[in-house]
Amino acid sequence: MDATDPCPLLRGLLRETLEDGALSGRRVALSGPLEGPRAVLAAVLEEGGVELVSEEPEYAIGPFARELRGLRGLVEPGTVMGAVARALDAPVVAVGCSPVARMVIEAAAGPAVVQALLRRTNLSLVGRVVAVLGYGEVGCSVARSVRALGAHVLVVEEEPLLAFAAALAGHRVCEDLDPAAEVVIACERAAAIAELPAGALVASALPGRLPPVLGVATRHGIVHAAGRDVLGGGVALLSPAGDGLAPEAADALLTLQGLALHGLADEQLETGVHRLAAELEEAVAQAWLERRAVHAQPERA
To answer: 261 with 59: CB under 8 angstroms?
Structure first.
């Protein structure tokens, strides 16, 4: 395994898995721009005989594909409800339910979201009150990252177990948004955000997390008759598919998606929501650890 390759799992584990020809000739649609690690995924799939298409696919990777009809299977990068699978009348593999995917997101999402926020605003978080809405994998990672930069973190979480986890991590926790918050990062769907001070910065970590009135606002726009700096008009700092993550994190997530696609084509799964097979998750974890071992080996004279 090449220690300098930013996508060793895609070029290693996934490429080897596709050598059995299970995806040869299959028509597959991919969501998102084909650049960075996603371009590597596309190249590896094509090497495995996949025909990448934008119309009439048999299989698809990405939440956009929920609206497609005639699919034989869907790989959902996030989590998904059974109603989606029934509407598609096809099996759906929810990669976001994978423990490995959740570990990757919890480790990598926070730094990616915060770096994107700082790049777009040139804002210092030291001493500021930052409210993190939701304490799932993304919210946990974001809260940890902003605290590391010197912010006073407020976690807004109604679910008791998640609120308990946030409190154990040392965060101040409440059910409602504190009007004193200077920066708000929505990691779960936000309720009304009307009591913030004028000029407060509101950002969405993932798509669809802001109320419509905020989602359509423009930067430095006026919301509820008070100044709100809605970053990018509500455009998400991170995508469910992992766009914006560090390359090694995106490599792991996209490899999981590729393996899920292989499983859809290779197995006869019933209509409904399925989780990635445990042995595939273990294979990804083991391959990642082997890569770390390569990096950890000291140079010898």
So the answer is: yes
What distance in Å separates the CA atoms of residue 286 and residue 288, rounded to the nearest whole number?
5
What does the DSSP 8-state code read for residue 277? Answer: P
List, in sequence order, the alpha helices (H) in the chain.
8-9, 15-17, 37-47, 82-88, 99-121, 137-148, 160-168, 212-215, 247-266, 278-296
- DSSP letters along 79-122, please? ---HHHHHHHTSEEEEGGG-HHHHHHHHHHHHHHHHHHHHHHH-
Alpha-carbon distance of 215 to 232, in angstroms, equals: 9
What is the per-residue pLDDT across 202-238, written as a single tens digit (0 to 9) for each?
888 877 666 654 543 444 444 443 445 566 555 677 7
> Going by DSSP bridges, is the β-strand pair 73-76/226-230 parallel, antiparallel, or unpaired?
unpaired
Residue-range domains of the chain with CATH: 8-100+245-296 (3.40.50.1480), 123-234 (3.40.50.720)
Q: Taking the model in full, what pTM does it have?
A: 0.81
Contact 159, 177 (CB under 8 A): no
Per the model's pLDDT, the better-predicted residue between 181 and 244 turns out to be: 181
